[in-house]
Amino acid sequence: MTKLEILHRFFGYSSFREGQESLIDAILSGCDAVGVMPTGAGKSLCFQIPALLFPGITLVVSPLISLMKDQVNSLVQNGVRGAYLNSSLTYSQYRAALRNAKAGVYKLIYVAPERLLTPEFLDFAAHADISMVTIDEAHCVSQWGQDFRPSYLSIPEFIRQLPKRPVVSAFTATATPKVREDILQLLALQNPTVMLTGFNRQNLYFEVRHPKDKLAETFRILEEHPGKSGVIYCSTRKAVEEVCSALIQRGYAAVRYHAGLSDEERQSSQESFLYDRTPIIVATNAFGMGIDKSNVSFVIHYNMPKDLESYYQEAGRAGRDGAPADCILLYSGQDVITNRFLSSHAEENEQLNEEDRALVLQQTEERLKAMTFYCHTTGCLREYILRYFGERSSAGYCGNCYNCNHLFREEDVTEPAKTV
Ligand code: ADP
Ligand code: MG
Questions:
Q1: Ligand nearest to the CA of 13
Q2: Would you say the CB of residue 152 lies under 6 angstroms from ligand 1?
Q3: Which reaction does it catalyse (predicted)?
């Protein structure tokens, strides 16, 4: 089969998107490869298609159990032989999956990074025919990134222990230049083909408001988007509860989503929103990973997120269909304080040693500052974001953000001024 036949037959798509085909070609030619593409660009296919064409197994290192489950389930539904190995399996399930893997049942095996250097897994890997190791969410290897996972650092050691070096590919959506460098170095990629597709999403309109009353402002925004589908992100569960109740009281159909709810309620909120039964979802950042809904016409941030990586990822869930969509952030000084509090109490930092933790906190603070400046800049908001991600845009004027449409125009009043 060719890669195009696989695209049709297993995934049901008729053509490749920007960047996919050349990455797939590079990987199939035996090159290491890195794909830096925004969320929703379609990075999974870039390793799944080569995985189906390679003679051996592809291991996919992935940081989140829920992400592994979703991806493997949809592969299996499409008729691809896939499995995952992580802590959601009981020991006997894990053993059984490894036995199947040894017998060559799977083409793609998703594995948690913590498993790689365990004796059982190493023993399997030593005898398996591994064609490729793919590292998804590769920014987790970097302390400069937002989701540093120390266990990602063991990936190159695992690869070194394999009898034959496989092709290594890495994918991420959030790569500032420093993180990108870390990915190349810390994962010990060899002469990789790097594919960087544009982060710009011209159909997204950006605006920051500094309202006295965020709830009243939210109602105002909703009135500007009658009947449209949208997400309202809040930084705490409590805020989700308050905003969602206020909306319902006001007669809006809205569902809530945060990690404090039962699995059933979260599932039902998510589906209700995805299938257009309820237009508005009020959520913490627990909502959205791997969500693929095309017709989201606005994303309101009721609170400023902790960094631009999070902001752009969350705001970027709007307008996937290419239609104009609004990304509006409601800023208050309190948001800075809340974020500082949340990051100093972040659970994921507890496993780090003191030195690492200090470093991570320092990076977190830097990112928070950059996020806060975004909320205060009078320059082009899009340019600010793209520059942060290391993309140079020449214009400094995008014509589709509040600052371009209002602040710049105010400076350009020479003609009316003359007539006064
Ligand atoms: P990423 O990992 O880059 O965030 P995913 O790999 O999860 O993105 O893909 C996002 C969505 O785009 C998925 O629903 C996927 O099936 C879809 N998709 C990927 N490639 C194509 C394509 N060539 N044509 C149409 N849809 C695609
Ligand atoms: Mg992905």
A1: 1
A2: no
A3: Couples ATP hydrolysis with the unwinding of duplex DNA by translocating in the 3'-5' direction
Residue owning the nearest CA to atom 19 of ligand 1: 42
* Distance, CA of 327 to CA of 317 (rounded, Å): 9
| 44 CB near ligand 1 (under 6 Å) | yes
Q: Which residue puts its alpha carbon closest to atom 27 of ligand 1?
A: 42
Interface ipTM > 0.95: yes
Q: Which two tokens stand for residue 186?
A: 């810390």
Residue owning the nearest CA to atom 25 of ligand 1: 13
Query: Of the ligands numbered here, which is closest to the C-alpha atom of 137?
Result: 2
C-alpha span between 200 and 185 (Å, rounded)? 26
Rounded distance from Cα 245 to ligand 2 centre (Å):
33
Phi and psi for 64 in degrees, rounded to 5? -125, 130
Q: How far is CA 402 from CA 126, 298, 373, in A?
A: 56, 15, 15
Contact 61, 133 (CB under 8 A): yes
Q: How many residues does the chain have?
A: 420
134 close to ligand 1 (CB < 6 Angstrom)? no
34, 44, 296, best to mutate for ligand 1 pocket (most atoms within 8 Å of CB): 44
Distance of CA 282 to the CA centre of its chain: 19
Residue 374 CA to residue 387 CA, distance in Å, equals: 11
Q: Which ligand is nearest to the CA of 20?
A: 1
